[in-house]
Write a structure and sequence with these properties.
The chain is an alpha+beta fold and about 220 residues long. It has six helices and nine strands.
Length: about 220
């Protein structure tokens, strides 16, 4: 892996077991754009920062644009707005100042940032989540993550929906390689409200989010 380390705003240092090859790579790429090795390194980091910023902005827009289903969500729903950045992984030290500039937010990384991903992957239990949508007026049950669409009875209850959601999220975790001993399923979000047409209740609209509780392998 080639690491480009920022020394100051005008210079980058190439650190690698073979520094010469790293520098040659930057020089070769720079010739295509009529840039020096130093400027090529700066361009790469700046482009990486732009890519990360754009993806985060897309995700935040998607989350903040989700439709509301209840009056409470409409009145009290909060928009997510990051106040700081935490990063881990090999490029963290290099990318931190770049991301601070792109996001205009403070960016932090832990002492052992270079191995944090590997440690997390080794110790983390498999986890997954699903969101279930139930419409008793149409007598349908839908789980987008699983591509599941079922017909249900018109008297389908919230308790039955929660039980079904827990069962499905457990099966999903097993299919991803989790062992039954590692699975601790939980409901993290639930809502149910009447659907009214005219002066009559025609059914219920339910939304249940279930997940396999994240955690560490003991």
């Amino acid at each position: 892996m080639i690491t480009l380390e920022l020394i100051d705003e005008n210079a980058f240092r190439l650190t690698h077991e073979n520094v010469k090859k790293a520098y040659e790579a930057m020089t070769l790429l720079g010739k295509e754009l009529n840039l020096s090795a130093k400027d090529m390194a700066k361009l790469i980091l700046s482009t990486m920062g732009d890519i990360i910023k754009n993806k985060v902005d897309e995700l935040l827009h998607e989350i903040n644009s989700r439709p509301v289903y209840t009056v409470k969500e409409l009145l009290y729903g909060k928009r997510i707005k990051p106040k700081l950045i935490n990063i881990i992984g090999g490029p963290s030290k290099v990318l931190a100042p770049v991301l601070e500039e792109k996001f205009n937010l403070p960016c932090y990384y832990p002492k052992n940032y270079s191995v944090a991903n590997a440690i997390g992957a080794a110790l983390a239990r498999p986890t997954t989540e699903i969101t279930m949508f139930v419409d008793t007026s149409k007598k349908t049950l839908f789980v987008p993550e699983l591509g599941l669409y079922e017909k249900i009875s018109g008297n389908y209850t919230l308790d039955k929906a929660k039980e079904k959601a827990l069962e499905l999220v457990k099966k999903s975790a097993l299919s991803l390689g989790a062992s039954i001993e590692e699975i601790e399923a939980e409901i993290v979000e639930e809502s149910s409200f009447n659907m009214v047409r005219g002066f009559y209740t025609i059914g219920k609209n339910m939304r249940i989010k279930a997940q396999v509780k994240p955690g560490l392998i003991q």
